[in-house]
Design a protein that fits this description.
homotetramer; Cytochrome p450-Terp, domain 2; 2 domains; two-stranded antiparallel sheet; 12 helices; 2% strand
């Protein structure tokens, strides 16, 4: 930052970024360390950011409200308390799915041939089943008939042209699992997001990063709601 | 959340939000508890979100890197550590400026008459000077000749039609201060953002909330950079 | 830390500290940057540390449980979420009381003369009443007939000889308030702890620091209880 | 908490705990959900609490200082930022060692016979070596000739009578590893602490919990030092 110029990811914030880049574009650029997204990639990032904004009462939103009760002067710390809960239990799927797909695709010799995808999928399923391990990205505790976000995400991934080998492999894994086990499991939105992130050239951790940003937005909403409509004291009174 | 439908701020996530709302629109809706922004307001929110993404080496980005060094399995906690530093020292200005303007505008009887703005501004300046208090939103430790983000933010606030009484009052305060003290202080970007947020019908804390989301995005970039290009161990070795 | 020697606050951890210093002694030494407590001061610190361990269901313990639900792999982050709530609302009293007493005692010319204490107390009460401000350290929302911890803390502060001008001034303030307002308010344990900390030569923030350590211990207990006897999922189910 | 009585872990805080229990006793009681330690166990806990207080410049202490720079009004959040880094990299050893020993001892049929310990140790070493895995609790990156805390901890564990099968097994593992690999690795203090915690009837996570409390005390010292002697701005200036 010189006196007159502010750089962000190597670009002039005032001349180049403000008013010209969307937040989604800037987020992708920050995640890649300076590489700008195509307009289609930026659109995909924007959709992913909207997909995981917290809704309703969640463990994170409750932690944020309860923290604000004790430290009303530190809204950032209340949000941080909510984010601390964005760990393996709810958000692990995205990262685990991406890591699984990344490993499988890296094992494939040469460029990934779409014809090779079913065989890769079978290998993933066999390995997981022989070890008695769950396959991340498949199944959802509540949306048994299919995660409603999945077809919408896939539709946009196709429209924007970002869907690639990782997305194809994830659906092939679901098929191979059904064929092998006779049990049909849905591709969940977290898993598909992990695949989409990979297909955009981002590392597995980027999916979790996007979810953390989404949660931060949801938790800002929670803080402002708690200020308008305090609930934490009532929650505490109810529970003690 | 029913089995087939996911609601976010009262809207169907899959049917209405994904692919149709930008992240900025959803953020505004989350902050207002369900009220959708106009397209112009959404654009303004998007610009504000891009304005405060962390750039370069900051105390928050350093805290994030150092936390990740000890807990590489918890990237969300590393981001939370960085956000915990988003307190009064760097981000207080936005909230303090908005609160000051809100108080002044609330004192004005009836609807705010733009002709009344200069008198309100003089009152703010007189009160602050008589108490020996700094006026939030004026001055910048580094950008002495003017915060370069300020004219760009104001340009977009005018284009989008969101600029209103709060923005006008802040510039009037800068003029009144110069007239009264003979010392010219720039309107800084944090202060103007506080005014813009008010003019969009949001509470003073919303400005800080937007900055927290921006920082979360910047810190996600920091985490991914630390994974590609580890620096925390080197920083520690240098400092101990 | 050399290869064979580990220093903590300037002392050899293995030769001098382990097995010889209590945790309370080490805590005082860490807070003063190397100055060792007398045995009496160490006993007082130990009692203060036990006084503020969280008990039962608190906003902090709930935030810790809810954070652990989402991130069971990060018990330290669950504890950090609970500590983030140790802000002004419950713990501010200790620091505010100490700061008030410190200011008053610093204003007194020369060494504090115990005979001057009543006059200092009257000044504090007059100033607060004329400004319509509450006096920190007086009153308790639940213990109307007296905070039961206060006489015990005072007894130990006398036994250990640490009670000094700050403690005396706080009780004098309670008397002056009763005389001036006709309304009797108890000296609460948080306020008295602030005074005790001052009388041990520590800054106002040390009281809050001790309370944070106590809370950390309570929250470790909460985490282990949540692991033995999970409650967070049930809390979430009940509230959503 | 009734109006006149405050319960902590089922005991009357004022009548039973304050002035009678040490902080170490209360910590053990909180960790077990109400079971009081013997005086010897309390002494061992006290020593463990002193062993892991942060000393010098650490990633956690740096994160705390940098967080305080941005949010000087939230010392608890600065401490929380430091604690967020108490993850797998530095503190994982304690928990991993305890879990390894616990599994091995649980596999042993009936009560653990001390004569069976060498065979259990060989099994642990064989399994780890055949999988190419490191054995937690052995080796130290800096203290190649032996972690100086280890003999002191063991001495106190013997004096207090808490040393049992887990401690014996850990040293037997070190012997078995040396016999099998020809390479001698020290038993480190973190690993031995994990064993001691098990031998006191606590779960593996209790060791990490004690370390988190110790770190909280060290970080309170860091916060007070930063207030007396600010370093964060200088650190930032040096690094950017």
């Amino acid at each position: 930052m010189s006196q007159d110029q502010i750089l962000v990811c190597g670009h002039d914030l005032v001349e180049d970024v403000m008013g010209q880049w969307s937040f989604a574009e800037l987020t992708y650029t920050a995640m890649t360390g300076g590489q700008r997204p195509t307009p289609e990639q930026a659109r995909m990032i924007d959709v992913l950011l909207t997909t995981f904004v917290d809704h309703g009462v969640t463990p994170s939103s409750l932690a944020t409200r309860l923290t604000l009760l004790g430290a009303p002067e530190s809204m950032q710390a209340a949000i941080a308390s909510g984010l601390n809960g964005a760990g393996s239990r709810y958000l692990g799927t995205m990262q685990l799915t991406a890591a699984l797909l990344q490993d499988a695709l890296a094992e494939a010799p040469g460029e990934v041939d779409l014809l090779a995808i079913p065989a890769l999928a079978e290998k993933i399923v066999e390995r997981a089943r022989s070890r008695g391990e769950k396959i991340p990205g498949l199944g959802h505790p509540e949306h048994k008939n299919g995660d409603p976000r999945t077809p919408k995400l896939m539709e946009i991934a196709r429209q924007t042209g970002v869907a690639g080998a990782a997305c194809a492999l994830l659906f092939a894994v679901a098929d191979a699992f059904a064929a092998s086990s006779g049990k049909s499991l849905v591709v969940n939105a977290a898993g598909l997001s992990g695949a989409i992130v990979l297909d955009m050239g981002l590392p597995p951790e980027a999916g979790k990063g996007l979810a953390v940003i989404s949660r931060a937005a949801g938790l800002v909403g929670t803080v402002l709601d708690e200020m308008r409509n305090p609930q934490a004291q009532g929650i505490w009174d109810e529970l003690r």
